[in-house]
Amino acid sequence: MSASQKVQQHPAFVQVQNKASYYVNTLDKELTKYPVLNNLEQRTQIPKAYAVIGGIFLLTFLHAFNALAAPVSNLVGWALPAYLSFKAIESPSPHDDVQWLTYWVVFGFFNFLESFALRVVLYYVPWYFAFKSVFIIWLQLPAFRGAQTAYYNVLKPVLANISSQTRVVAPTTSTSEPAAVHE
């Protein structure tokens, strides 16, 4: 019996292999809800769970090289939401429109703020773009309703405060006498 066969038959190895299979099967069942992934699986013959796991590892690898981290993070924030926004425009239901409009407002505001503080944030926060990508995914996924949560808890109060301040009209002085003309 070879060394690799002994390792493969070891109870700890078998237990890890069974756990991994369980988690991959559970992930596969969850991913079946997404038609895009089902189509990808049919076209490529790569199981959707493996494609998602591979994509996560690829993103992690690309984040390890800081020069690629920013473009990858922005791609994560743009690619799938843009596609799903186009689909939402064509669908008759307004629910997905609200999801993606809210996402784009929050994503745009976040990128606007980031443009002011990026150098400082990069200095103090290692792996910033990895955290940003996770945050963006949280915003995107309808199961978490991250975009709505961020909008209602952060953006809406800020925008309401700004809006109420712009509605205040400066007091005007009206006099019944005509203004004196200086010669």
TrEMBL record:
Keyword Membrane: yes
One Pfam short name: TB2_DP1_HVA22
Subcellular location: Membrane
InterPro entries per record: TB2_DP1_HVA22
Ribosomal protein among keywords: no
Topology in membrane: Multi-pass membrane protein
Domain of life according to the entry: Eukaryota
TM region(s), chain numbering: 49-80, 100-125
Keywords in alphabetical order: Membrane, Transmembrane, Transmembrane helix
A GO term from the CC aspect: membrane
Main location: membrane
Similarity annotation: Belongs to the DP1 family.
Entry protein name: Protein YOP1
Organism the protein comes from: Crucibulum laeve
